[in-house]
Amino acid sequence: MDDVFESMLAGNEQHARSFDDRFGGLQDGQRPEAVTVCCSDSRVLQDHMWGTDDPGHLFTCGNIGNRVVQRVDGDTVVSGDVLYPIAHTGTETVVVVGHTGCGAVTATYDHLTDGLEEPPGIEHCVDILAPALESGMENLPDGLDREGTINHLVEYNVDRQIEALEESDHVPDDTALVGVVYDFQDIYTDRRGEVHVINVDGETDPETLRESSPEIESRIRRLWTY
């Protein structure tokens, strides 16, 4: 047996012991308060970033590039992963979580600038991200280094995912849509692991967001507006 998986099973044993009594009321159904769409990067801890230790609070979706869309019969539509809790569990809040130094955004940028080739499965994901990021590249501020370019595009990608949710006929108009960036690279502040709000229901201007949501004023922060 693979040593890595053996250690994973040992960890699961500890998990099962500590969670044995935490599934009361959840065994026959779920009513998560929010669905989060995170990048599947191993450094992005989907539940832990919110201080969530108990099951049942978050419906977590993960993929490279924190995409909320998929391709169906040639059309780009909101992913079933995201729609399921909205349609079936009464979830009314969607949080799109980008992160600093995103590898999927980097791969898409390299694909658009250098024609980087990837295996078909990765190429499929890059192709979904590419149209949105291409328009963002045209608006980037001058003088950015590679790291700055990627992190600006991380924000732009989150904005485009929120936009896709807003425009979908399958997402109710009263669904709360929030876009954030998870920072573990000291880009926004020196507090690694902090989440920074960059988009609420399509509004991206930090001053407007602070005026409308003073209770989270200190957590609203963007690298750029365009």
As a percent range, the share of helical residues equals: 25-40%
Order of helices and strands: HEEEEHEHHHEEH
**Number of beta strands:** 7
Rg, rounded, reads: 18 Å
Strand content: 15-25%
Q: Write down the overall mean pLDDT.
A: 96
Distance between the termini: 52 Å
The name of the CATH superfamily reads Carbonic anhydrase
CATH level 1 name:
Alpha Beta
Major sheet characteristics: 5 strands, mixed
Integer tally of domains: 1
Tally of helical segments:
6
* Name given to the CATH architecture: 3-Layer(aba) Sandwich
CATH topology name, in short, is: Beta-carbonic Anhydrase, Chain A
Unreliable stretches (pLDDT < 50, length at least 5) are none
